[in-house]
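Hello,

Our lab assistant flagged a job as stuck in the queue for most of the afternoon. It eventually completed. Since we weren't sure the result was trustworthy after the delay, we are filing this so someone can double-check. Below is the sequence as submitted and the structure that was eventually returned. Let us know if re-running is recommended.
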Amino acid sequence: MIKYYSKIAWRNLLKNKIYSVINIAGLATGMAVAMIIGLWIHDETSANKHFKNYETIYQVMMHQTFDGVRYTQQALPFPIGEELKNKYPDLKGVAMCDWGQTHSLIYGEKKISKYGHFIGADAINMFSIKIIAGDKNPLHEPYSIVLTSETAKILFGNENPIGKMVKMDNQTNLKVTAVVEKQPKNSSLAFNYLIPFQLQETIYSWVKAYHKTNWGNNSWQTYVQLNDKASLASVNSKLKNVVISHFTDENTLKHIKPEVFIHPMAKWRLYSEFENGKNTGGFIKYVRMFGILGLVVLLIACINFMNLSTARSEKRAKEVGVRKAVGSERRQLISQFLNESILIAACSFILALGIVILALPYFNKLTDKDMSLQLANPLFWVIMIAFTVITGILAGSYPAFYLSSFNPVRVLKGNLKAGQNSSLPRKILVVLQFSSSVILMIGTIIINQQIQFGKNRPIGFNNKGLISVFWSDDIAKNFAAIRQELLNTGAVASVCQSNSPPSELYSSNNGWEWKGSQPVDKSSVFSTIATTYDYTNTLGIKLLAGRDFSKDFADSNGVILNQAAVKRMNLQNPVGASLKWNDKPMTVIGVIPDIQMGSPYRAITPLTIIYSPGWVGYLDIRFNPNMSASKAIALMKPVFDRYNPAFPFEYQFADEEYAKKFNYEELVGNLAGITAVLAIFISCLGLFGLASFTAEQRVKEIGVRKVLGASVLNLWKLLSKDFVILVLISCVIAMPVAGYFMNEWLKSYDYKTSIGPGIYVLVVALSMSITLITVSFQAIRAAMANPVKSLRTE
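-- returned structure --
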């Protein structure tokens, strides 16, 4: 029976080539979109699932209250690691970790710069990091290093790296104890090398001197693995006061109130956002949004199939009548029509698979992923076959039930006429289809408008012609000579030091007091930039009052404030005002504008710039504006090669780093834009098919009208009018729906665009233009046809 149904279905496909092509192309596009979005969702939701201990790994986090608002952070104090290991038996493993740094690795003549972590020894087993060669407990030796296979290949070529010595930053010799697999791109633990966490105490004197027993500085990450019998609620109750128990001051106990908890690995990727101490979600909202979009696009493609199938009902009516007259039951007819739709879905799937294979490399580049079709995996084909069958049934269900319902007597007597309401279901489907497309169009425009709104926001400094170079001991020792030689090249206008690169804020602090401040104000958080001299000059920040740090003054107790900090402290005459920072007397020496260094969509935070030579970690360099960047860099490279030989000369352009702040929104905008374009394309295919059918159905009417003197313009209006009305109705339905959802989306931004009427006018104009272009080809073609051909059978 299936063979018989398939043969009939295949003949129908070949008999109606135009409609078959439209159906297959539309469904294929919808299926391809659904497949690609499905792959993307799978990649996002499967993040970190390659870790064997996925269900029992947690990150230790902390709530703190500042200015009456409960904030949540991953940064924790250094001594918490030892305390968790020694006092909490529910924890099977504890691994402290830094935030990741770039260090130079030298072996012989090879010199590379790679990103990695100082991390606790328990991390290897905790994260089930696969060891390819070497020690199974490779971080137990203090002077050891674990390399990924990729990094080992670059450094050692075909040599066996195990036991070889690598020099880090030209100062510390480390023994390669293991080579491990590189982590996948959707892993939260990304690295090219791992170094024992405790080694920091040996090679960095400031770690032991300042952080070893300091419970008030939060600069580290902590991961734990629970014992199998330990419960999340029980562990959270025990860890809650692990930090606050080390404080006696009233400000911390009464106002800041640090509270420790653990956050499961299952939520790291998609549920990372907290608001006032509560987990409010995160990237999961975009996963859900694009999941819905994928289904909507597939639904739009299915609507095409339904519309074209039911529109051609009169062509299949006699076939249905004859089959029923000779004894076919309705369920058999339904099976036949569903079989046809599944065959079309199968053809569409083959085409969709080809589209996905061609598009996936570009999509991977767009989303910075490494996704692939698992063609050799039997499970992939089971899912795809099920997906194809479900799509076929979804697309063919309405036509199957509709066509199989015809009365055979009426059909065979020739009494099956399209009633006044016979086209109503089709019109509803067209409205639903185009409403979805219009919603996508409006959403895409608003997302891109929000991106542009952020890009146009004044940042308060000049990030063009500005680079930053990561700090090293050699740069620290030779800073004066490096600075002078860079200036002597003529390629550099200014040089300064800072604890974070331009366009980033790595530190924030509380403990500030000012005239009229209350005890609770000591919990207010101020972003902090540490520097020495020429910071404002190098970054191109115009001082509003006062001066920058200068060698002509004793500025170790000086501080520069931004306008937000002046406002927060309510300083009427800020320059010269006396402050305290953790009981240290400070004096305001300058005021700068509210420079934008955080998210371009967030409110400017109060900022303090302090003089602190021991805290810097970057060299900021302003190019000579009269010299090209490439020439300036060529002149600068020999200086760094001479004074910083352990590191390749690597740098970051401030404007490029700032542009990366928009990556998240641009990804969403690009995905929404691509989805919208494809949805409109599918909708247009459906309109084209319906316009073609309408012109074919009314061919005699058009012939009569032409004979009676109707012009091509009149006939074009006649055939286009119904479609224009349907699309206008779609716009009316879509605009408030899109407006509501996009207003909800914009609520997550402090600095946001407004949704004006111009967007809706633009979308209506675009929708009308697209509709008329799509429909006009068939309408004009029918209007210009020779009426003799259509009327000669009358």
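-- support follow-up --
The delay was a queue issue, not a problem with the job. The result is valid. The radius of gyration is 34 Å. The chain has a mean pLDDT of 86.
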